[in-house]
Amino acid sequence: MNIHIYDTIVVGAGISGIAAAYKMNQAGYHDYVVLEKADRVGGTWRDNDYPGCGCDVPSALYSFSFAPSHKWSHLFAKQPEILSYLENVTRKFDLNKKIELNNELKTAKWDQAKAIWSLETSKGMYQAKTVIFTTGPITEPSLPKLKGIETFKGEMFHSARWNHDYDLTGKRVAVIGTGASAIQFIPQVQPLAKELFVFQRTAPWVLPKADMDLSDAAKGVIKRFPMIQKTWRGSIAQILNGINFGLRNPKVLKPINLLSRQLLKLQIEDEQLRKDVTPNFDIGCKRLLFANNYYPALQQDNVSLIPHGLVEIDGNTVVSANGERHEVDVIIWGTGFEVSHPPIGKRVYDIEGKLLADRWKGSSPEAYLGTSIEGLPNAFLVLGPNILVYDSFIGIAEAQIQYIIDGLVKMKSKNIKQIQIKKDVLDKHNYLLQKHLKTTVFNAGGCKSYYLDVNGRNFAAWPWSLKKLKQQLKTLELNHYDAA
User: What's the predicted TM-score (pTM) here?
Assistant: First the structure.
């Protein structure tokens, strides 16, 4: 049986996969397929449907440059609208015929003799000359390995796998973690719970969210005058550039640190609670969080903030690091995702037949411009190591895909069978990257964030400006690659 050898296989139909399909069509590059493990597109916006889920970046910027929308109901869009937007874009540009749903990648192996990728999936074998992994960094929920977790008799779920069938009304609820997801769902859970225990290992910086509803009249105006949205998009980009400048130059953020501490005095009356939620690191060292209803929720009578991590579960009793014990009916894990090693590494084998996840054990994943990994010929990763800038993920993904497609088109026109990032290019890039990260707030802000892996190395952040990143992603320079 002959297997069709595609020019390209895209793995994942979230934000990046949808953008890849659109941009390949635009480039007249049609011999590709997108494989998606789930039964609908949307990636992280499909999986994270917990109550209160929404975006931290204003909706005007959190949309594809090729598909602006005038339908957002809030300045900061909520999850159902973002998912609906992604599905509408897929329909509008007729991308569905290129997407195979319910088709999960099991393994991807490179055949050096044939210069072909072989992908084993839940629907059989696929082959392609090139592969784009658009699988995203926030896909695999992270669960702590805790003593006694198997003895818990109540209900237990992660925020990214929310159990909507379970009624929280009148229940004693433990929420573990106070990160981006937790601060969004805690205010939604609080009115339902009999008692709510919030376990906080590290107090995050939570800044007011400049959100507002957009009426039908406002939507109508935006529809009639697209220039408004274009200007709005531009101003938000400028504000984010300003934030990025501060993260790269922590001294600039000192006044904001002071201002934010003053703001806490206005937001929280109880002195002990205020002390417990005051961060002990510089603003921006961990991901900046935005919410207006989180601090009010913590001050309700049925809520107890426990400023310690959870260390043990003893039957239906949860035990914190300071020995405090509470009996609960349900545990909700707000413990984030496996981000330090791209989850795709558990399925992809390099040129030497070694699983990426094994190769990365004890070391940190590295890439060139978050896109090209050593030992992976003809393969590209979107939103890979060291490409996080405080900006819309959509904008970063679009820039990376432009770079990748530029490479694919060059390979086709010059009849190049194989390209692989040069080791000296990769090493130099990562040396400079780590050197410049040392002075950023992520490394020097006094916190232990998910940006730093077990080796204390920053695997996530980009130390320069967004403008510099987009300039470097404008074209794929073939002289940075070994081409044959």
Answer: 0.93
